[in-house]
Fold:
Amino acid sequence: MATGSVIRNMDMCGDLITGIAIFNLTRSEGHWAWSDDGWLWVSDYEWGWAPFHYGRWVNDPYEGWLWVPDYEWAPAWVVWRGGDDYYGWAPMSPGISINLYFRQQV
Structure:
């Protein structure tokens, strides 16, 4: 993940917002908190409610991290991985869907 990646924010209609911000997705201000919906990213940014809960992120080889807005809310659009004593997360790209179904054996 590139440090100081460029993000072009788009509004919910897909129109490009004029400003381009230098932003590092992996060093964003905030913290993880457990919620009724699972692990929730609590952003310290005033605008963090939108890009961290509505939409996904794409790592473009030329532009860096790009936010792709959407209307569906999630506590955090990430996938988790763990091993030994370590856990990590990575942004879930647009178009990826993970559905889990558990059936209790009787």
